[in-house]
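Hi L., both proteins are below.
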Amino acid sequence: MAQVLGIGGVFFKSNDPKALGEWYHRWLGVPVEHPWGASFNPQALPPGALGVWNPFDHSTTYFEPSSRDFMFNLIVDDLGGALAQVVEGGATPVGEIEESEFGCFGWFIDPEGNKVELWQPPVPTGAESDVSDG
């Protein structure tokens, strides 16, 4: 049987795709190339990062305060720094940073009203130091 191997992209409508892409490039360093969007190399992700596919129940409030039927998650290397950058760029922060065994999470509403979750994965056990004493 053929199998899905991962998330190949996140696609959504925008009122002004070029302006929104430029906003994400300026405030989060997303490597946007118009009109195709941005590509991310899986090898550049930190250890422990992964893509998640998760349909939510229609009655969920998890995407609030956005009125959209979706939310996307971006993996970041510095959650506090990334949140500060998007707020400086005019985004609205949502809630407080949450920490769990899955890492740290923070949220914001982008200039078009999309709720975005930022995720800084935890450092995997044993990966804190890749330098040997030999």
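That was the first. Here is the second:
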Amino acid sequence: MSSSSSSLREQTILELRSRMYGIRAQTRSADGPCPVPTGLSALDQLLPAGGIPQGAVVEWISPQAGQAAGSLALRASAGLLQRPGCLTVIDQGNEFHPACAEAQGIPLSRILLVRIPAVAAAKSRSYSTGHDHGTVQGQWLWALEQAAGSRGVRVVLAWLPRATTSVVRRLQLAVESSLVTVMLLRPAAALRQASFADLRLMTQRQVRPEGKIGEPDRIQVTLLRSRGGVHEQNSILLRQYADGRFAE
């Protein structure tokens, strides 16, 4: 196949995906709530529907250690919390810092924090993501699914190192009726698995040039997957300051 034919084929696929998403978006707007903007115009333009969908599963992939993915997930959650309901944080590793939520405009009074003992959390990393509620991992997944299906919850934020297809499918079924949005923070290893989430985004902290100490970090956000297809422009750059705030 020639390069021109290949280019035409890719363009046609992108156009078809765009049309399909437009049809789905119109149907969703008529039958249910519209996506909620994040407040970051560049990020909203990257997202196919112009915001974070309600009643959806969103994966935030981070190949690096740090809080960029979690901070962005919290920033996106702040807009969703304009409606009644709380942010439930399923903190498997006792790594959640309330100050991070406050930096993104989320009052602590709107947060329900779910934690398990530190020793049990360490042991849970050796378990598979099965259905056995007798294991620590099984209990943690049960808490995640219960929060996802609760009408008193608006957003769920959870760390999910590993997940089977059935786990994500059950989360999708739960949020379809509750309209809760589930934000999953996942490591780079998740890229080796097929994604069934409504959105999959990857955040990468760019290397700061020499002599630029004190300047905000540059965070690259890439849209890897969406139910409506990925647009031609699938990556943006944001700035993150030392206090956690984002700017464009």
